[in-house]
């Protein structure tokens, strides 16, 4: 199951707004209207935003998920596009960077709200930092000899 399928399965009143974008009732507060916006990034990560102001960590916890489950697993199944492709376009690199930066931000927000990160979340955070460094090296290096 992909992260977006996993998330959508756990939400009520899911409605697709446009390709890659849904709305649903927020599980973290008593939601009458669909206050939760769900987006899938091009690399398969899920971005959540509650317009009533719930923090992402609370929404994720209310779904019974962990933060790292919003992001695709490290090992990409055969046939799926390679995450660490040699030649990324600037747009792809920025999209990846945005998705990793979101994970770092969500982790920080979770800690600031007095929650703790699971071991899996902590490992995923460390992986984010190494992916961001990878992206920097790729763009500074330009071509590989
Ligand atoms: Zn909410």
Structure at a glance:
With 145 residues, the protein is of the alpha+beta class. Helix content is 41%, strand content 15%.
Distance between the termini: 38 Å
In percent, how much strand structure appears in the residues?
15-25%
Q: Which stretches of 5+ consecutive residues score pLDDT under 50?
A: none
Count of DSSP helices?
Answer: 4
Largest sheet: 4 strands, antiparallel
How many domain units?
A: 1
* Strands, total number: 4
Please bin the fraction of helical residues: 40-55%
Explain what the structure shows:
The chain is an alpha+beta fold and 145 residues long. The chain has one domain. It contains four helices and four strands. A hairpin with a 2-residue loop joins strand 1 (12-18) and strand 2 (21-25). Helix 3 packs antiparallel against helix 4 (119-141). Zinc ion (ZN) binds next to loops.
